[in-house]
Specification:
Elements: H1 2-15, H2 18-27, H3 29-37, H4 42-60, H5 66-73, H6 85-101, E1 123-124, H7 128-131, E2 138-139, E3 144-152, E4 163-170, E5 176-183, E6 190-193, E7 197-200, E8 210-219, E9 224-231, E10 234-242
Parallel strand pairs: 1-2
Antiparallel strand pairs: 3-8, 4-5, 5-6, 6-7, 8-9, 9-10
Helix pairs in contact: 1-4, 3-4, 3-5, 4-6
């Protein structure tokens, strides 16, 4: 019994890492746990049930197959054909776990790179007079730009490749980057790339935690911009950086994209 409890507790601890919970969901851990519980004595089942349910909630909040769900609903109490209240509570806990975590996209970097591409972010100012819809953005922004995002780095790569948070570019054959935000894996600092790279020296984005990043770019009458960087709602640093990249006059692109 003690060994079985230790195994369940170890699995539960591992499941608190989102990527581990996803692997467990794909590997059928829920089904294995439920099948095991159906074979042990009632006393042993009672001793294991609390940890087993916590594990099922953690994994099930990531994904639960139709087979796993059927097995869970078939966990009957003796002399009772109805679905027990404890099972209903387990299902509700899965939904609560998901809602508390909020919506997010996870990029699997094992293949080398991943990205989310938005094809229409802004219209180059050279086209603004003829085809810009109401409330559509133009590039470069006339007054400035604010960027707000949440991110979490599970682990930086071993090859010291930067982690790109945002890139605005011209989708032509020879891509031109207008604005890029990326993290340096060597010192965990933020780099702002416009026409030149500017390092946010007071930033440090270590892996393993959710972070909110906010940047406010204010245009000036010169060729530099004032930038205010916020981390987790608090001002991190004020600095100046070169103006945004512009779309060359001879460029045939109609859109700025990510």
């Amino acid at each position: 019994l003690q060994t079985q409890k230790q195994v369940l507790e170890r699995l539960l601890n591992l499941s608190f890492l989102e990527s581990n919970a996803q692997v467990m969901a794909k590997a059928g851990v829920i089904a294995a746990v439920l099948k095991h519980l159906s074979t042990v004595s009632s006393d042993m089942k009672t001793a294991l049930l609390s940890t087993a349910r916590q594990l099922i909630v953690r994994i099930g909040s990531q994904a639960i197959s139709s087979l796993d769900l059927k097995l869970l609903l078939r966990q009957k109490e003796p002399e009772n054909e109805k679905v027990p209240l404890s099972t209903i509570q387990t299902l509700i806990s899965m939904l609560q776990e998901q809602s508390q975590r909020g919506s997010f996209l996870e990029f699997d970097m094992n293949a080398g790179f991943s990205s989310l591409i938005l094809s229409n972010v802004a219209v180059p100012q050279k086209n603004a007079s003829r085809d810009v819809a109401i409330n559509e953005r133009v590039w470069p922004p006339t007054n400035g730009l604010s960027i707000s995002l949440w991110f979490r780095i599970v682990q930086y790569g071993m090859d010291n490749h930067p982690v790109r948070l945002l890139s605005l570019l011209i989708p032509t054959e020879t891509e031109k980057t207008l604005l890029s935000l990326y993290l340096d894996p060597q010192d965990f600092s933020l780099i702002i790339l416009t026409s030149k790279a500017t390092r946010v020296t007071k930033s440090c984005f270590r892996p393993g935690r959710w972070t909110h990043l906010g940047l406010v770019f204010c245009k000036t009458k010169t060729k530099v911009m004032n930038v205010v960087v916020y981390v987790d709602g608090e001002m991190c640093q004020e600095l100046k950086c070169p103006s945004f990249g512009t779309v060359p006059a001879g460029d045939g692109s109609e859109r700025v994209c990510r």
